[in-house]
Design goal:
The chain contains 17 helices and 19 strands. Helix 16 crosses helix 17. The strands form 2 sheets. A 12-stranded mixed β-sheet has the order 8-1-10-19-18-17-16-15-14-11-12-13, sandwiched between helices. A 7-stranded parallel β-sheet has the order 4-3-2-5-6-7-9, with helices on one face. Helix 8 links the parallel strand 12 and strand 13. By secondary structure, it is α/β, with parallel strands linked by helices.
């Protein structure tokens, strides 16, 4: 496998739309004219367009009625001056533009850029610039804008969104009825959460960032941190005299009849991620298969909770739920771990039993729900979770006093104290069974090696996603059993075992 390359140029700090608007106002108040910021944004967008599509020669801007439109008018002016055939299709009356946007419109007209009103059925050509709606969009997209958005999405033209695809909520990644499907988005001043979670990853295309020479935010606290090589927690190198007792005894509890593979995947993942020792407590019927598959895992067959207590006593970390089931066997095992004074990770059926009110997770447990499990835990539907993934993750963390990993595109890690981390890595080939089991084992192994719950969850989610990217390059059919080896390789790259 190729070594990981550190070419990520996006910032790690993520801000709300309100924080970015406040920062924009502060820059202007400090002496940089708003029109100058608009010109910088236009130059950044035009440079991205001309680099990616240098020979197209035609550019069409769809402009709304705010500052986002002003950026678009200036992009059209730059394209026109570069010899491209550029025009603007305006939604609303350009004469009603005010401030910097009105000045941008005037500059484009004085340069000779044709401006015409948008009408449904208008032929679209060249590179399309989405300058319709900005980060302030909050309600459902109005009919006229929806018509333009749908026309852009039907076209076969490349699409560039200015700051954010129109119709995408900047803070949640929710689609406001209709949204632009961009090939490229150039965003400014601060990174927006909605670009990276919810529907954002599917609509943004390639994401470029330009701070417009604005410098760092002053005292604003980011709403989230993007997981990247520069922001990840790290495992310490191991001493030359290290021994297995120093790196955690992980006990995996799960694998009811018919689902033994889930628990085995979790155990194997914990082993390959560096846990000192791994024990699998499962149905007796699965022990032989576990030993054949992975003899390093100490498999113990349990018909009931008898002898589970001594396994818990020897463990440092409990990973509970993969393949556990919701019948009497699984319920009794889960009930036995609730009072254990051990670091814990709950996944799969442990979460379903938690949602049913049968148990309560110990404070500080790492919960790893997918959106369906999160919806059951919150007593809502999946659509409500996906409409505001950051808030769903935060609510779960507060409600259960636990660390929460809300899986999906733009996975989120939330802590009860309000910390939020986002992972923008991954691959569509990861839409396959068993990958959640691997993630649970990975979190458990990192907990056993000294990271706290939030740190372990953050590093595990990033490693899991990047390993999925590597295997996803081979296409569909990604098997979860292949992921632990890829994780091991990545972990060594960023956290070398020895100096």
């Amino acid at each position: 496998m190729p070594a990981i390359t550190h070419t990520d140029r996006l910032p790690v700090e993520i801000y709300s739309a309100a924080q970015i608007r406040a920062r924009d106002a502060a820059i202007i108040a400090a002496g940089t004219p708003g029109f100058e910021l608009m010109q910088r944004a236009a130059r950044a967008t035009w440079q991205a367009v001309s680099r990616r599509w240098p020979s197209v020669g035609t550019l069409t801007v769809l402009a709304g009625s705010g500052n986002n439109a002003g950026d678009g008018y200036l992009v059209a002016e730059l394209a026109h001056r570069a010899g491209w055939r550029a025009r603007v299709l305006a939604l609303g009356e350009p004469g009603r533009l005010t401030g910097d946007a009105a000045q941008a419109h005037a500059c484009a007209r004085e340069a000779g850029v044709p401006v015409a009103p948008w009408s449904d059925g208008e032929p679209l050509a060249g590179v399309l610039i989405d300058a319709l709606l900005g980060t302030g969009a909050d309600g459902e997209v109005r009919a006229e804008y929806r018509s333009a958005i749908e026309a852009v999405n039907r076209s076969a033209c490349p699409v560039v969104a200015i700051d954010i695809p129109s119709g995408l909520h900047a803070d949640t990644g929710r689609v406001l009825g209709a949204a632009i499907q961009a090939d490229l988005t150039v965003t400014y001043i601060g990174l927006k959460l909605g670009l990276l979670t919810g529907q954002g990853p599917a609509l943004t295309g390639e994401l470029l960032f330009d701070d417009l020479q604005s410098g760092p935010f002053d005292s604003a606290v980011p709403v989230a941190v993007r997981l990247a090589p520069t922001s990840l927690p790290r495992l310490s190198p191991r001493s030359r005299t290290a021994h297995k007792g120093q790196f955690g005894q992980v006990l995996v509890i799960g694998g009811d009849l018919g689902t033994g593979g889930a628990a085995l995947l979790t155990a194997e993942s914990a082993l390959r991620a560096g846990a000192g020792m791994v024990t699998l407590a499962t149905r007796p019927e699965h022990v032989t298969a576990a030993l054949v598959r992975r003899p390093e895992v100490m498999a113990r067959g349990l018909e009931s909770t008898y002898r589970l207590g001594e396994l818990i006593e020897r463990a440092d970390v409990l990973v509970v739920g993969p393949g556990l089931g919701q019948e009497a066997w699984g319920r009794s095992l889960l009930s036995s771990v609730v009072g254990a004074d051990r670091a814990q990770v709950w996944d799969a059926d442990a979460l379903n039993l938690l949602a049913g009110g049968l148990v309560e997770a110990p404070p500080g447990t790492v919960l790893t729900p997918h959106p369906g499990e999160a919806a059951r835990l919150l007593g809502c539907d999946v659509q409500a979770v996906e409409a505001d993934r950051p808030e769903a993750a935060r609510r779960l963390a507060r409600r259960h006093d636990c660390i929460v990993v809300l899986k999906g595109a733009g996975s989120l890690v939330a802590a009860p104290d309000g910390r939020l981390a986002l992972c923008d890595r991954g691959h569509p080939a990861m839409a396959a069974a068993g990958l959640g089991d691997v993630l649970a084992g990975l979190v458990g192994a990192l907990r056993g090696q000294g990271l706290d719950g939030f740190e372990a969850a953050c590093l595990a989610v990033w490693l899991h996603a990047c390993a999925g990217e590597r295997l996803g390059e081979q296409g569909r059919g990604l098997a979860a059993a292949g992921l632990p080896d890829a994780v091991r390789s990545l972990l060594e790259e960023i956290c070398p075992c020895v100096n």
